[in-house]
Every structure is written in structure tokens, then in C-alpha cells.
Amino acid sequence: MERASILIVEDEATQRLLYAGLLRKEGYAIGEAGTGEEALELFRKDVFELVLLDYKLPDTDGLTLLKKFKEINPDVEVIMLTAFGSIENAVGALKAGATDYLTKPIDLDDLLFKIKKTEEKTYLVRENRVLKETLKDRFKSEDFVYQGEKMHEVASLIVRIAKTDSTCIIGGESGVGKEIVVDLIHALSDRKEYPLIKVNCAAIPETLLESELFGYEKGAFTGAYQRKIGKFEMAHKGTIFLDEIGDIPLLLQSKLLRALQEKEIERLGGLHSVKVDTRIIAATNKNLEEEVKKGAFREDLYYRLNVVNILVPPLRERKEDIPLLIDFFLKKYNGKHKKNVKGVTREARDIFMKYDYPGNVRELENMTERAVVLTRGDYISIEDLPAFSGQTKILLEKNMKGTVETVEKNMILDALISADWVQTKAADVLGLSERMLRYKIKKYNIVRTARSSG
Ligand SMILES: Nc1ncnc2c1ncn2[C@@H]1O[C@H](COP(=O)(O)OP(=O)(O)OP(=O)(O)O)[C@@H](O)[C@H]1O
Ligand SMILES: [Mg+2]
After folding, report:
1. Protein residues with CB under 6 Å of any ligand 1 atom
2. Nearest CA to ligand 1 atom 16
3. Which ligand has the nearest atom to the CA of 178?
4. What share of the chain is helix, strand, coil (3-state, %, to 5)?
5. pTM for the full predicted model
6. What domains are defined for the chain?
7. Could you read off the pLDDT of 54-104 as tens digits, one per residue?
């Protein structure tokens, strides 16, 4: 992994040299600035992935500078260096997009640790972008939107297996995007010039499913006036997508197994088998292993299908994807409903982020579409999310309080450690009365442990 380049903005020369020396030894490329003006000049000239930013500078303050950096490069990671007792500054910095903060005096191990953590994250973002470019090249439409690591893994898996002919099972709750994954696999495969045929096994009555899949010959049964080609044959040289595979009746499962093993099918009432070269991709929101245990799904078929297993995680486990998805759906439904909604208010965005989405991406999509239709303003606001605002608002208030409390607790702990747990000294550094400090220590249940002894 290529080492990141870091800009150190700190007006105290000795401190700056100390950080710079340490980080150069670790192999980072370093830029140094002692004022806001110098920092901006360097930042415009060179590319920095990370900035160590002192809050107090002679010509400006860290928060102002942070915002300017983010304007120039929204992807830049900023670690803010704040003084003791300035909880508001730390919270403000985090809210303005800082990745993390450290309180002075800076613990060098801590500094290195946080930089490495941030570096891993930026590395991932970069890799993500490369992968997206690859996807964009090969998959004309950009309908597959994600931001975070979890879907990044899904995307890498898709790219890796698309060109192979292996069968796969796509798992995941309803609405997570299983069908999109199938579209992508097909579009990235060498079969893309041939059809992708979709069959929803749960939607077709059992009695018709067999003839849908395998077709029939003229006279195979009453009403079969002419030969009908089944979906398997239609998908010859292409891909067949068997959605809700868990709902295929047992009898058909053996026929499917045969098609997989022999690479040939038999039309109903047919005398000969027909060679087909069709890739099978199946999806289900059932737990197939359990269906196998229950005897509802053939074990041999399960193993045949499950050469590759792609599990699409529920949206609530990858909330970092939500903002991009909202933007994507805004564009989509602005177009459809001839509206020009520009975005989402901060409050509404918080609600979008807090909600758990039992219906996953489909539910988020529906929520966004409804809000686009409902809103009278340029931005979607809480009022446009009627079903969610009440309960979620309460949740949010609790949560903001939680953030402030965590920051405060950490600051007190830092102060205590550096004061060797002498409470008078710590209270002094924090600008609190001793009584207040004792109260907070009790409130946050701060105890001296081997690890926090300093
Ligand atoms: N990563 C994504 N980017 C953009 N749109 C998405 C994404 N994931 C899902 N969607 C959209 O969400 C909706 C639901 O997705 P999809 O139909 O693929 O879900 P599914 O997992 O097949 O659900 P079900 O189990 O109900 O069949 C679709 O309109 C799809 O376009
Ligand atoms: Mg589906």
C-alpha cells in the first residue's frame, strides 16, 4: 500500500518538527505549514490525503480552515488537534467533517494509531473508485450505487466471477438489490450479447412452472397446440435467473439438477433432449441450508447451485451507502416526476440515516420517491417524511447527546491520565471545578484501570 501524504498545520515549530520527523520515519510524505495561509497555499498546490490540523492558529482557526480544505477536496481526511477543555471545538470539527480529533498534549502513539486507521480508510476509498471506474467501463448504466466497504466486497466478487461460468446463489433480505447484482453479473460476462432471462419461481403456479422452464411439444397435453420454447432454451448462450429458487417444488428440483449436470433439457412431451448452454444464477431470501435440513430443498441441487454465494447485506448494516442512494433516487425521480428537488435538509438526512429499513433499498427508494412528489420546496424536509418524523426525532435528540457525552468523557479521561490521576491537576487543565470533575467522573463511571494509568 502506497503511503499517504500528510499536511501538518501547526504554528508551534517544535511540535511541528516532532510530528514531521516521526511521520517521515514511518514513510509518509510530509508537508508543513505554520499558518493558515501557508497551509492553503500548499494544499492547493499538492495533493494531500490527510491533514493534521491545529485548532488554534495565528491567522485563522482550525474550523474555518477545515471547511476550506473540504471545499477544495471533499475527500480529504482531517484530524483536528484541540486543547483540553474545548469540547465544543472537537464536536464542531467532527460535525464539519473532521475524521477524528486528538487533544493536546499529543500522545505520539495515539497520533500514529489514528493516522494509520485513517490511512486504511482512504486506501479503501481509492480502491473503491478504481473498481467503480472498471464497473462504469464495462457496465454502461450506473445503476449500482454504493459507498461503503461491505458493498465494495460484493462488487469485487461480482467482477471476479462475472466472466466465469459458475452458478451462483444470491442471498439477502427482500429489497437489498439481489436482482441488480444479477444484472451486473450478466452485463459483465461474455454472455452479455445473449439474453438474460428472468423467472420468478414463486410467482408462477407450480403446475405451469415446469413448462415455463423447459417448454413443451405440440400435443404434450390438452391445449398444447404448438411447440413452446422454455426459458432455459431462450437463455441459450446467455443467463437464466431463477428468482425465489427456494419455492421450486421438489419434483422440479430433480429436473433442474439434471439440466445442470447434463447441460441438456427435455421439453414436456418431447422425445429428445436438447443441449443448452445456459448459466444459472439463483436468488432467494430464504435460508436454503435450513430448507435442505427440513427436506424442502434437495441437498445435491443446493451444492450444485452454490458454487459461489453472494450475500447482499441489509441496508441497516451499511448505512454509509444511504447518502449516495438518496442522491441517485433524487435524480431518478426528479426526472420521472418533472421536479427539481436539489437535496435533503440536514434534519431529514438524519432521519434517513437513523431509520432501519426493514424493506431495505426498495423502501428507501419508495420513501425518496414519495418525498420528491410531496415536497413543495427545493429540499426534502422532515415534513415530507410523515411516517418517520415522529419516532425518529426522539431517537435523534438522544443520539446527539450521546456524541457530546462520549467526547466529554474521553477528554476527562485524557486529562486524568496526563495528570497522573491527580484530580486537582486534571480539573485545572479542564477548566472545571474539582466538585464538577468528581461529579462527571461518577456520571461517566470513569475508573482507573491498568490501561488508563498512563
Ligand atoms: N445498490 C443499488 N443501487 C441502486 N439501486 C438499488 C441498489 N440496490 C437496490 N436498488 C433498487 O432497489 C430496488 C430493489 O432492488 P432489487 O429488486 O434488486 O431487490 P431484491 O433483493 O431482488 O428484492 P426481492 O427479494 O424483494 O426480490 C430496485 O428498484 C433497485 O433498483
Ligand atoms: Mg428480486
Report:
1. 143-146, 172, 174-180, 285, 328, 361-362, 365
2. 177
3. 1
4. 55, 15, 30
5. 0.62
6. 5-125 (3.40.50.2300), 146-313 (3.40.50.300), 316-384 (1.10.8.60), 392-453 (1.10.10.60)
7. 999 999 999 999 999 999 888 899 999 988 777 788 888 888 889 999 988
